[in-house]
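Today's session is about reading a structure prediction critically. Students often jump straight to the picture, but the first step is always the sequence itself: look for stretches that repeat, for charged clusters, for runs of hydrophobic residues. Only then move on to the predicted structure, which in these notes is written as discrete structure tokens rather than atom positions. Here is the chain we will use throughout the hour.
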Amino acid sequence: MRFLIMGPPGAGKGTQATAVAEHFGVPAISTGDIFRANVAQGTPLGIEAKRYMDAGEYVPDSVTNNMVRDRIAAGDATDGFLLDGYPRTLAQVAELDGMLNDAGHELDAVLVLTVDREAIVERLLKRAEVEGRADDTEDVIRRRLEVYAEETEPLVSVYDERGLVVAVDGMGEIDEVQGRIFAALDARTED
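Below is the predicted structure for this chain, in token form.
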């Protein structure tokens, strides 16, 4: 199975991606985790990515595309993967289409978590306190939500036109949301 998980920042994608990936026996690939690891290690990619992340902007496509191409070509992703945080722009959709086409694969589903905007702001501010995440100030959170609405939300329509979107209510307790996700994706894979 080859999935994408989409939704605004703070929708619970990272939390749910791990469970969904385990459920289907594929690796969860998070561009955000890869960027944060590079930032923590002070790599050239991390230094470049940090400038954009601190401003609530997206890391340039050229950097992100190369990272994703390498990661989905890894041995553990041969039989499938779940991408979290990619694609984020229409240009990245075309790039991912090319990567999959070159490998003779296609996407099976695009899981979209729907959530309330103000609930996300509260959720991210709490996460910032608990995890000490400097990139989660209220101004940066609101900017990230604007960038998502402008650049990434239109991708949902693209994938919906392809018949790939599985929309799931992302509000509620983690286990409740997870149950809705599993039911929706299991039903899709049985078709």
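Discussion point for the tutorial: Residues 4 and 110 are 5 Å apart (CA to CA).
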